[in-house]
Amino acid sequence: MKVLAFDTSSKALSLAILEDKQVLAETTINIKKNHSITLMPAIDFLMASLDWTPKDLDRIVVAEGPGSYTGLRIAVATAKTLAHTLNIELVGMSSLLSLVPRQQGGFLVPLMDARRNNVYAGFYENAKPVMPEAHLSFAEVLEKVTDAEQVTFVGEVGPFVEQIQEQLPQASYQETLPNAENLALWAWDKKADSLHDFVPNYLKRVEAEENWLKNHSESGAPYIKRL
Predict the structure, then answer these.
(1) Cβ-count burial of 56 within 10 angstroms (0-12 exposed, 13-18 middle, 19+ buried)?
(2) pTM, full prediction
């Protein structure tokens, strides 16, 4: 099976092309760029490097969220367009799982910085989810894992190192970037998603919707997005 995987859910852009679980080409760009401009040229470059055409692909794997609202919309729109045009499988995987090193076991908590000391967090024991992913304050994350004998925080851990050291001195941490190869391998045996129903997994409402609901909670009127 020939797979194209990509993740644009954060500042970093990660791409990988695999055949039969072997990575053939990959790239990661960890600078602030507009993914809508860089994603397709990066895909074209990797495909051309392998002398492949889009018709060679059997599956698209995409990071479905959580993460940047704009980044997720770009990734999902691109993935759905490619899968529909090529008539191939589309599989969505958690952006948080993209941060989890495949060779590392134990209790892992992947983090994405959601600003104001909030995070998107996952909770995995040997790559199996033990609690639902959620948008939480970092204090809530620490509370959820306070009784763990050993826990490793991965992903965007930089802003939270001091709190980890103060509250959980027994914990370890490792800064990791999104890894599209990991994403593809985690998804290898997963059933394809419904192309029609596939949407980003934001985990948190956009700020405009939250403000609207706050001001209209008593009216009972539905929130309607203008198209």
Answers:
(1) middle
(2) 0.89
Number of domains making up the chain: 2
Nearest residue to 71 via CA among 14, 117, 18: 14
pLDDT tens for each residue of 130-160: 999 999 999 999 999 999 889 999 999 999 9
Looking at the fold, whether 166 and 65 belong to one and the same domain comes out as: no
d(CA 42, CA 65): 20
Q: Name the residue range of residue 131's domain.
A: 101-175
211-220 per-position pLDDT tens digit: 544 565 555 5
221: in domain: no
The rounded distance, in Å, linking the Cα atoms of 16 and 19 is: 10
Q: How distant is the alpha carbon of residue 187 from its chain centre?
A: 12
Rounded to whole angstroms, the Cα distance separating 73 from 199 reads 9
Q: Report the C-alpha gap between 7 and 21 in whole angstroms.
A: 18
Per-residue pLDDT, 217: 59
Q: What gap in Å lies between CA 160 and CA 32, rounded to an integer?
A: 21
Q: Which residues pair with 108 in a beta bridge?
A: 124, 152
CATH of the domain at 132: 3.30.420.40
